[in-house]
Specification:
Helix content is 15%, strand content 31%. It is an alpha+beta fold and 170 residues long.
Length: 170
C-alpha cells in the first residue's frame, strides 16, 4: 500500500508541476513600446522629351504643278512632359539657312522652304516665334508642323535636304 501512496503522491506532484507550467503559459506578459514619427518626402521635377518626325515634301515640280502653286506638307513633333509643367518648342533655321531664309541644299543649289505653327501658314515657327506647351498628363502629344516650299522657284534637278533642330525649353 505504501507503494500505491508513493505513486499517488508522485503522480499528484507531476500533475501539479504540469498545471503550474500551464498556468504560467496562460499568464499575460506586458511589454513596453515606444514610437517615432518621421517625414517622407519626394520632389517631382519638370522633365520633357521631344522627337521630331521628318518633313518630307513630295517631288517639287517647278515647270507645271508648282509653277504657281506652293508645295505644302505637314510633320509631327512629339512632346512629353511632366504633368503640370510648361515649355516652349522652338525650331532653328537649319544648317543651310541664309539669314532667316530656310533652304534645302543639293550640291551648290538651294530650294527655299518655310515651317509654320498654324495650318494657314501665316506664323513662321522659329527660335523667336515658338509654340507654347502645357502638359495636362505625362502622355506624349503631337504638335503639327506645317511646311511649305514656295511656288515658282527655278531650281535644277536634285535631291535637296536640310537639317533642323527642334528644342523644348521647360
Amino acid at each position: 500500500m505504501e507503494k500505491r501512496i508513493g505513486r499517488l503522491i508522485a503522480g499528484a506532484g507531476a500533475a501539479a508541476l504540469v498545471a503550474g507550467f500551464v498556468g504560467l503559459a496562460q499568464s499575460t506578459v506586458s511589454a513596453t513600446t515606444a514610437t517615432s514619427t518621421f517625414a517622407v518626402s519626394a520632389t517631382v521635377s519638370a522633365n520633357c522629351t521631344i522627337a521630331a518626325g521628318a518633313l518630307a515634301f513630295t517631288p517639287y515640280d517647278p515647270v507645271v504643278a508648282n509653277a504657281t502653286a506652293n508645295l505644302d506638307q505637314t510633320s509631327t513633333i512629339t512632346v512629353a512632359c511632366t504633368k503640370g509643367s510648361t515649355g516652349v518648342v522652338s525650331l532653328d533655321n537649319g544648317v543651310n539657312a541664309s539669314g532667316t531664309i530656310r533652304r534645302m541644299k543639293a550640291g551648290t543649289n538651294f530650294l527655299t522652304y518655310e515651317m509654320y505653327s498654324d495650318s494657314g501658314r501665316t506664323t513662321v515657327w522659329n527660335a523667336t516665334n515658338t509654340v507654347s506647351y502645357t502638359a495636362l498628363t505625362k502622355a506624349t502629344t503631337g504638335v503639327t508642323l506645317y511646311g511649305r516650299v514656295p511656288a515658282g522657284q527655278d531650281v535644277p534637278v536634285g535631291s535637296y535636304t536640310d537639317s533642323v533642330v527642334a528644342t523644348i525649353t521647360f
